[in-house]
Amino acid sequence: MPWTNESGGGQPKGPWGQGPAPNPEPKPQPKLPGGVRPPDLETLLRKIWSDVKRYLPAGLLGKRGAWAVATLAVGVWLALGFYTVNDNEQGVVLRFGAFVKHTGPGTYWHLPWPFESAYTPNVKKPNQLDIGFKPAAETGGESEDKQDESYMLTGDENIADVQFSVFWRIKDANAYLFNVDRGKSDDVVKAAAESAMREVVGREKLDVIQTSHRETVQMKVQLGMQAILDSYNAGIEVVSVKLQKVLSPAQIVTANNAVQKAIADQDKKRTDAEAYENTVIPQARGDAARIVLDAEGYRQQAIATAKGEAARFNDVYQEYKKAPEVTRRRLYLETMTQVLGPMNKIIVDDAARGISLQLPPQTLPARPAAERKPGTQVSEGADKGAGK
């Protein structure tokens, strides 16, 4: 109830025994840069006092007690201005929402709310964000897939289950505080990561992402994320991107395995064909070179033989012109020797009255003509074949 005069006059008094003062003319409040008007401190203290006195026992609101309570409240309010900055943090002080200063590691004081506020974002330790799965540390068992995040369409029109982790940190505390909702920084990084990953995966083939292009994909996603975050001036640096798993969904594993087997068989057959080619072509070239050399040798041999035969014929002809009968007889004997040499010989002795002797050519002895009996006829070819 309102305080009244003890003399019974009924004039209400204030909590310190004084009557209400006439309402003075309101003083114009100074304006801060930017057109922001600070709150009325007197009005604020009155509101705080009215809230406090409802919970104090009656009789405690004397003049001294009121001042003690007010002093305690102001002390508590001023104590709220102390803040500590750790080694891996950076202090940022704002006054009425505008940047004032940065502070390094240590303990500092600023004007408490609503005048100033201090933030200490971690600017050195990287933050980890897992996309496409929930790690085992969070589930308490095995990791859990998030299909709505991990399923992506590749450049060769396959579906890939891509699970990856992003490591990021704050590189500009001012840009981070003013441009990013501090409670949703992971959502901002996650949206940029999914966008960059889907763009890169959509240009690559599934098999190269799983094998040879993992490092390339990680680097492209990191650069793409950084470009997106810088375009929003988010003050965030992407430290690294690491692919955890790149698999085909369980629904198409069998078909994908068949495709992979076909690709492996294709590579094997191509390798075998190349090996066969590397073996057959040099061998064929060697055979061709050998045939050419053999033909060349045969040509040289045939030419030399023909020249030799021609020279021999000329020599025989010259001898023939000198002694035609002797040369003719010699040619006949040589010819018969060549014809009858490999044949069996039959010797007929006229003196022995028709007795004949058949000998193979290699066993027929050669005898001089003076030792032969009169009437014995032996072909010249037989004598020649017997070693004459």
Task: Note down, in words, how this protein is organized.
This protein is of the alpha+beta class and 388 residues long. It folds into four domains: 83-119, no CATH class; 127-248, Band 7 domain (Tetrahydropterin Synthase, Chain A, 2-Layer Sandwich), CATH 3.30.479.30; 252-322; 331-385, no CATH class. Helix content is 46%, strand content 19%. It has eleven helices and 16 strands. The chain has helices spanning 41-53, 63-79, 136-139, 147-150, 173-179, 185-201, 206-210, 214-231, 253-322, 324-340, 380-385; strands at residues 3-4, 12-13, 82-85, 91-95, 98-103, 106-109, 116-119, 127-131, 133-134, 144-145, 151-153, 159-170, 236-247, 345-349, 355-359, 376-377. Strands 8, 11, 12 and 13 form a four-stranded antiparallel beta sheet that branches. Strands 5-4-7 form a three-stranded antiparallel beta sheet, with no helix packed on it. A three-stranded antiparallel beta sheet has the order 15-14-16, with no helix packed on it. A hairpin with a 5-residue loop joins strand 14 (345-349) and strand 15 (355-359). Helix 6 (185-201) crosses helix 8 (214-231) and helix 9 packs antiparallel against helix 10. The chain is rod-shaped and about 185 Å long. Mean pLDDT is 76; it is low at 1-21, 31-36 and 375-388.
Number of structurally distinct domains: 4
Helix content: 40-55%
The average pLDDT score comes to 76
Low-pLDDT ranges: 1-21, 31-36, 375-388
Looking at CATH, the homologous superfamily of the largest domain is: Band 7 domain
CATH architecture of the largest domain: 2-Layer Sandwich
Structural class: alpha+beta
Q: Ends: how far apart?
A: 170 Å
Number of strands: 16
Q: What Rg do the Cα atoms give?
A: 60 Å
User: What's the helix count?
Assistant: 11
Largest sheet: 4 strands, antiparallel
Under the CATH scheme, which class of the largest domain?
Alpha Beta
